[in-house]
Amino acid sequence: MTFTGSDTFRAFVARTNDSQFERGVVSLTLGDLPTDGVLIDVAWSGVNYKDALAATANGRVARISPLVVGIDLAGHVIESDVDWLAVGQPVIAHGYELGVSRHGGFAERARVPAEWVVPLPDGLTLREAMTIGTPGFTAALSVEALESDGLTPGTGPILVTGASGGVGSLAVSILARRGYEVAASSGKPSARPYLRRLGASTLMGRLGDTTLIDRTDLVQPPKPLSSARWAGAIDCVGGAALAHVLPSLSPGAAVAASGNTGGADLHTSVLPFILRGVSLLGIDSVNVAIEDRRRVWQRLATDLRPSDIAAIGHEISLEDLDGALDAIGDGGVTGRLLVRIGA
Ligand SMILES: NC(=O)c1ccc[n+]([C@@H]2O[C@H](COP(=O)([O-])OP(=O)(O)OC[C@H]3O[C@@H](n4cnc5c(N)ncnc54)[C@H](OP(=O)(O)O)[C@@H]3O)[C@@H](O)[C@H]2O)c1
Questions:
Q1: Euclidean distance between the first and final Cα of the chain, in Å?
Q2: Cα dihedral sign for 183, 189, 194, 196?
Q3: What pLDDT is stored for residue 58 in this prediction?
Q4: DSSP at 123
Q5: 334 pocket-lining for ligand 1 (C-beta < 6 Å)
Q6: Of the candidates 207, 201, 164, 206, which has an alpha carbon nearest to the alpha carbon of residue 183?
Q7: Which of 44, 80, 170, 328 lies at a CB distance of 3.0 to 4.6 Å from 139, suitable for a disulfide?
């Protein structure tokens, strides 16, 4: 089937017009998409914190206007400009410039460079792939980084911050299925049963143990060193939360840091580094080479598969995105909002 520039489709677009910002669902034609790449019939997308920034006037993420928002997408190939991607093939795309300086996944159609495309691995549905999405990919990179640093399931408990959000939920569930003892830190008391279901054995912050990392209690500067509790940590909150994690890592342990929902500044001391030999491992999911991206997705379908994918995703529609983007920007979402588009 060939599509022409006159075909219309629905898309959620953010636009700045003469310093006026607007966003919402509009009708576009294929002529509005880039001309190069693989045309995809988008089945699912997912809502990320970065999407909330891209769809906000002062979010400093969007690089074009108008922009079809959405850094994640999964669907079927409709038109291909390479012989290794067949029409009808199920695929995933995320990262690079998608949803930032190239139209993204909150649309019924997307045109994506073939070199950004990941064929859907056996063992995952498109819906499951978008439940995992960029957050699960980031969590998997974090687990890989910690294990490359020497972490194994027997080493001791692992702390996950921002545990009820996208990266946090996927980190808890990947670690739990891999046999790690997981401590989940969250600002949402209501997320307690959910985090237990994903496999967390210890619940931190407002959920129970208040000795560390309640998002509302992070105004006090951390001690330079506190009791060594964690064999490793996955932090997607940054700011004061990360500053509290570093002094509580065990000797030789590492924290994989990927996010800044709690702030971009990091005020800490060198003591955890020079007296306990701890490591701060930076995680960037955006610019991962495509061979590594495809390899990590194979692992997400097999040995890094999350424990309970069905518990994490909640379906919404393109029309629900306006409120969903506000909710995720405020840190108010538990799990992952899945956008049903053409499925
Ligand atoms: N480096 C990368 O490649 C990469 C990839 C993906 C995401 N990220 C970043 O990772 C972070 C999480 O992304 P996400 O998509 O998982 O977001 P999300 O679903 O909104 O989850 C973020 C979670 O952070 C916690 N949080 C703590 N303090 C907060 C605060 N002051 N405001 C809001 N939330 C707060 C909340 O969990 P609790 O209520 O449970 O505490 C919230 O649910 C973002 O900064 C995102 O940009 C980076």
A1: 18
A2: positive
A3: 87
A4: T
A5: no
A6: 201
A7: 170
User: Do the beta carbons of residue 157 and residue 181 sit within 8 Å?
Assistant: yes
> Alpha helices of 123-199 — where are they, by DSSP H?
126-148, 166-177, 192-198
At position 152, the amino acid (one-letter code) is T
CA atoms within 13 A on the CB side of 267: 9
Choose one of 50, 160, 216, 236 to mutate for the ligand 1 pocket test, by most ligand atoms within 8 angstroms of C-beta.
236
Q: Which residues pair with 280 in a beta bridge?
A: 255
227-249 residues labelled b (16+ CB within 10 A) or e (exposed): ebbbbbbbbbbbbbbbbbbbbbb
Q: Is 32 helix (H, G, I), strand (E, B) or coil?
A: helix
pLDDT at 213: 57
Structure token pair of residue 137: 């990919």
∠ CA(27), CA(2), CA(5), 5° rounding?
35
What pLDDT is attached to residue 202?
86
Residue 335: predicted pLDDT: 97
Any residues with CB less than 8 A from the CB of 1 and at least 6 apart, and which? 78, 87
Q: How many CB atoms lie within 10 A of CB 173?
A: 27
Q: Which residues pair with 90 in a beta bridge?
A: 76
How remote is the CA of residue 55 from the centroid of ligand 1, in Å? 16
Angle at CA of residue 334, ends 330 and 335, nearest 5°: 120
Tell me the CA–centroid distance for residue 41 and ligand 1, in Å. 29
Three-state SS annotation for 210-265: CCCCCHHHCCCCCCCCCCCCEEEEEECCCHHHHHHHHHHEEEEEEEEECCCCCCCC
- pLDDT of 48 reads 97
- Cβ-proximal residues to 28 (8 Å cutoff; 6+ apart), any chain: 8, 9, 10, 11, 13, 68, 107, 109
Q: Which residues contact 236 (CB under 8 A, 6 or more apart)?
A: 138, 161, 162, 165, 167, 168, 171, 257, 258, 259, 261
10-residue averages of pLDDT along the chain (343 residues): 64 90 96 96 97 93 96 97 95 98 98 98 98 98 98 95 96 98 91 95 70 58 88 95 93 97 93 98 98 98 96 97 93 94 89
Give residue 18 CA to ligand 1 midpoint distance, Å: 31
Query: What integer pLDDT is reported at residue 3 of this predicted model?
Result: 45
